């Protein structure tokens, strides 16, 4: 016991001398070097920084989290999570893309300046739905307004126009971009410098190009034929110009014949869509919907009856 007391006294004396020489030094006894299992010993210096042991532990935890994020599986295309990113747009982005489709400019690429490699399906989906609904409603309103001007016209609701408009618009907005994307992919295999857009970018361009027809269809309610055709031609020119200006940077590296044929086909299909909507949903009233007045019917029957010859009456 005396030896142990003497050893402890010598340690205390050495520690006192060390503290006197270096006041910032820290001392630990042998018993303090043993830490309980599962705990980390942290040494805090005069500057207040943590030791290297905790830094290593933080780095290991950060690496584990990064590995977990990298190993997270991507959702399949049959799940809603896969398509969620295509609807992740705000109102200002949609309005900016609509503005770009209404004001096409040469040399101003819609994909590069508006989409910026982030195509969305939110705008094209609602633009197609709105256009189909407006087409069906205005087509029925045209008959209602015609009946008010002429009471002899018989009007009956045509609900099938909603289905026809929806199928026509959505098929055009999806099938035509699909065919265009496939053709450009084939041309890329023929000519390496031809670089097509992705399928979603092509769908997005076509979807936003149809927005100009929504106000045009509403203005078609004005019962002036020449004004209706003029508004339709203006909307067609703006929409087709936006498509041509967007596709030109892709097809200009191709041969002149292929580029001219492709752009002509795009404009022709757009023209057929506009004219088809105008002639089908705003067609003139068919003859069977115009009711014949009763006095006209009686007049027609009397006209068809053969007249009695005056000579025969005098003989009898």
From TrEMBL:
- What Pfam families has UniProt attached to this entry? Yip1
An example molecular function term from Gene Ontology annotations: small GTPase binding
The protein's location, in the record's own words, is:
Golgi apparatus membrane; Golgi apparatus, cis-Golgi network membrane; Golgi apparatus, trans-Golgi network membrane; Late endosome membrane
Of the GO CC terms on this record, one is:
Golgi membrane
Instruction: Name a biological process GO annotation.
Output: vesicle-mediated transport
Membrane topology qualifier: Multi-pass membrane protein
Q: What is its main location?
A: Golgi
Residues annotated as region Disordered? 15-37
List the InterPro entries: Yip1_dom, Yip5/YIPF1/YIPF2
Task: Give the stretches traversing the membrane.
Answer: 121-144, 164-184, 205-223, 229-250, 257-281
Q: Which UniProt keywords apply?
A: Membrane, Transmembrane, Transmembrane helix
Q: Where is the Yip1 domain?
A: 102-274
Compositionally biased residues, Polar residues: 25-36
Q: Which family does it belong to?
A: Belongs to the YIP1 family.
Q: What is this protein called?
A: Protein YIPF
Organism of derivation: Oryctolagus cuniculus (Rabbit)
């Amino acid at each position: 016991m005396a030896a142990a007391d003497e050893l402890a006294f010598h340690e205390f004396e050495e520690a006192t001398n060390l503290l006197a020489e270096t006041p910032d030094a820290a001392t630990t006894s042998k018993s303090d070097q043993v830490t309980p299992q599962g705990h980390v010993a942290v040494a805090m210096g005069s500057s207040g920084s943590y030791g290297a042991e905790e830094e290593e532990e933080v780095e290991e935890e950060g690496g584990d989290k990064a590995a977990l994020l990298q190993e997270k599986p991507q959702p399949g295309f049959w799940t809603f999570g896969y398509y969620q990113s295509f609807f992740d747009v705000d109102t200002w982005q949609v309005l900016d893309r609509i503005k770009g489709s209404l004001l096409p400019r040469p040399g101003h690429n819609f994909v590069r300046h508006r989409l910026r490699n982030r195509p969305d399906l939110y705008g094209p989906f609602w633009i197609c739905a709105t256009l189909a609904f407006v087409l069906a409603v205005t087509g029925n309103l045209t008959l209602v307004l015609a009946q008010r001007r002429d009471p002899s016209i018989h009007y009956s609701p045509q609900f099938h126009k909603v289905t026809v408009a929806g199928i026509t618009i959505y098929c055009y907005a999806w099938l035509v971009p699909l065919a265009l994307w496939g053709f450009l992919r084939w041309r890329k295999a023929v000519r390496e410098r031809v670089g097509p857009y992705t399928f979603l970018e092509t769908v997005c361009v076509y979807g936003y190009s149809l927005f100009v027809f929504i106000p045009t269809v509403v203005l078609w309610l004005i019962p002036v034929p020449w004004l209706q055709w003029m508004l339709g031609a203006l909307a067609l020119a703006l929409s087709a110009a936006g498509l041509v200006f967007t596709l030109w940077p892709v097809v200009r590296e191709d041969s002149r014949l292929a580029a001219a044929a492709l752009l002509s086909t795009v404009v022709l299909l757009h023209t057929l869509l506009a004219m088809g909507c105008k002639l089908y949903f705003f067609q003139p009233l068919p003859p069977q919907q115009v009711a014949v007045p009763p006095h006209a019917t009686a007049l027609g029957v009397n006209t068809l009856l053969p007249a009695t010859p005056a000579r025969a009456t005098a003989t009898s």
